[in-house]
Amino acid sequence: MKRTSVICLGLLVLVAGCDGHTRLSGEVVGPDDKPIAGVKVRLSELNEPTRGWESTTDESGRYTVGLTHAPLDIPLVVTATKDGNKPYRKEFKVSQREGFPKKIVLEPDPQAPATKD
Questions:
Q1: pTM to 2 decimals?
Q2: Right CATH number for 20-105 from 3.30.1330.60, 2.102.10.10, 2.60.120.1200, 2.60.130.10?
């Protein structure tokens, strides 16, 4: 009986250890406010960048990314990249996710080689 209680308590702690979830959705546009398709948007933990989720914007520039993490106010980072543009990066804490911008503006990179669309 005692052993069963210890096992159940251990499983409860294990399951409860990852009940945080952050989901972001929005739009990626250029400086002219036109949507940009094909942008890789990634949400990850700042201290564990390999733990993350990536999405690619659709023709309307829309994306949705989500991440399951420990139920703490941990630092996260969003990046958005596409050839020919400067990379976008924004760090924030889980508690600040409601204030995350719904629109990401990618600036052209004047140093990048010209690309064909």
A1: 0.76
A2: 2.60.130.10
